[in-house]
Amino acid sequence: MRERLLDVYRRLLAFYGPQHWWPAGDDPFVVVVGAILTQSAAWKNVESALARLREDRLLSFDALLRAPDEELERAVRPSGYFRMKARKLRAFAAMLAERFDGRLERLFALPVGEMRAALLATYGIGPETADDIILYAARKPAFVVDAYTRRIFDRLGIPPGVDTYDGWRSLFTDALPQETALFNEYHALIVRHAKVKCRKEPLCPGCPLLDICPTGQSRLAASAASQVDRRASRA
DNA sequence: GTCCAGGGCCTAC
DNA sequence: GTAGGCCATGGA
User: Fold this and answer.
1) In this structure, is the CB of residue A77 within 7 Å of any atom belonging to strand C?
2) What is the pTM of this model?
3) CATH number of the A28-137 domain
4) Measured in angstroms, what separates residue A167's CA from nucleotide B13's C1'?
C-alpha cells in the first residue's frame, strides 16, 4: 500500500507542482481560524472573512472572546454559516483560555493524540478540522481526510479498511512515513486534483492518475465505444 | 435558477 | 450508530 500511495503522490506532485498551503511563517492562530472558517466553504470566501477579522482586529484569542456576537458574525459573514462559525471561533478561544492559558503553543506542545482529543472536545471542531489544525497550524503529522480524498481514492479502487473518517485516515497514516511535509503537500494536492480533474463529473483525459485509475479507464473506454457507435450509425 | 465549496452538530429512528 | 436536516454566503 505504501508504494501505491506514494505513486499517487508523486504523480500529483509532478503534474501540479507544490501547492504551498499555509507555508511556515504564517501565524498559527490565523491558520486555526482559517481551518474553522473553511468548513464547507470556498477558500476565497474564507480569505475575505479573514481580511475582515484582521481589519476589525479580531485575530487574537482574547479579541475573539470579548467581541460582541454581532461584530464577530459580521466579520465572518462572507465564509457562510456565519452564526455557527462565530460561535465555533468563540468556543475555540474559550477552550484555549480555560485549558491553555490562552496560549496556542501550550496546546501545540501536547503529544499529537492528546492535542487531537482536546480539539475534538471543542465545539465546532470535528475530525477533519482537528487534523487540519494539527497539520497546518501545529505542523505535526496528521493526515487530513476530506470528501475529495474519499472520492479520488474510491475511484482509484483504493478503499479504506473501514468507511469512516478514522478508517480513511489510517489508510494513509498506517502506510506512509509520518512526515509533516509529506502529509501537508499530499492533502493540498488531493484538493487541487479534485478541483481540476477528479470532480463530480470527472475530466479524465490527461489525468495524471489515468493509467492507475480503473474508473477513469472504463469511462474513457465507454466514451470511445459510443463514438464508434455514432460513426457506425452515420455510415 | 441551480450547484457547490478545504464540515460539524443535533435529532430521530 | 447512522441517516437526514440544518446552518448561509458568494462564485461559476
Assistant:
1) yes
2) 0.92
3) 1.10.340.30
4) 25
